[in-house]
Each structure stands twice: as C-alpha cells, then as structure tokens.
Amino acid sequence: MNLLKISRNIKIRLFIIGIVLTLLSFFIDKYFVSLMLELQNSFLISVLELITLIGNIEIFVPIAIIMSIFFFAKKKKLLGLWASIISIGALSFLLKFFINRPRPYESQNIISIVNTSMSSFPSGHAMIVFSIVPFLVKNFPKQKYYFWSIAILVAFSRVYLNVHYLSDIIAGAFIGYLIGMIFSELEDKYGWS
User: How far, in Å, CA of 157 to CA of 36, rounded?
Assistant: First the structure.
C-alpha cells in the first residue's frame, strides 16, 4: 500500500511538471521554431527524417509486433504494452481532433519537411514512443539510456522537421509516458500476461 501511494505521488508530480513545462513552452514555441530553422542542414534533415519514421504508424506497428514477439519469447508481459499503445492511439486522435492546433508550417509560413496528417497538438509521435519507454525500461533496465535516447530523438525530430511546436512534443511525451507508466503498473498489479 505504501509503494502504491509513492507511485501515485510520482504520477501526480509528473502530471504537474508536464502541465507546467507545456504551458511554459507555449511562450517560446515560435522562437524555438526559428532556432530550428537556423540549425537545419541537409545532413541532419536526412538523419532525422529516418528517425521520425519510428513514430509513423506503418513503421511503429511492425516494431511493436516484433517487440511483442521478443517479449513473448522472453516470457515478458504484453497486455499492458498493447493497452498503452491502443489507448495512446485513441487519445492522440481525440486530442488532435478537438484541439485542432495548426502545425508550425501552416501558421509560421515555413516548409514542411515530412508529410503529416491531422493537427499539431499533442505530438502523436512523442506520445507513442514515450508510452513504451516504461515497459522497455522495466524489462530491460540496462538499456534504459538507449530507449530514452531514441524517444527523445523521435520527439525532437518532429520539431526539427517543422511539423510540431516544442509544446506539442513536451505534452505528447508527458502524456505518453504517464499512460505507459499507468498501464505498466496495472500490468504488474493485476498480473496481466
């Protein structure tokens, strides 16, 4: 019971930090877009175009299936992972539909480097990649820095490629991680297989 209370406190703190950082980032969104425009070069664009593909549904779903096969082979739990992925997909769609924030290339009159759909807030790519981090870190703690690095790079790629604001990826990362953490704990608590 005490561990559950600590975990709930961590989730509440994470939620508050996510809201505060998202709200603060709204004030620097346009400046951050300008900074990214100044830092863009063809080499980094090419690299980040590949990295951003990890969050595309047509790439992410096969990756998730391969992860599931690997988890199954190692006798790791799968239900929480898939519950998180499906929940994130539905939540991302609903938030984008109702918030309907224009993307930077639409409102800042700049060029979109990659194709997108729907609106900008929150970043679906950040949500999905950060939602699986708790499962990967829990099951493979020695590789946690690799998982965090990949998630951060995917999220960063969205801003660098002119399709998201900083606030979009911060909100997406916090929402995704929080939901992943909740499903990871539910999986452990109820013994989901």
Answer: 10
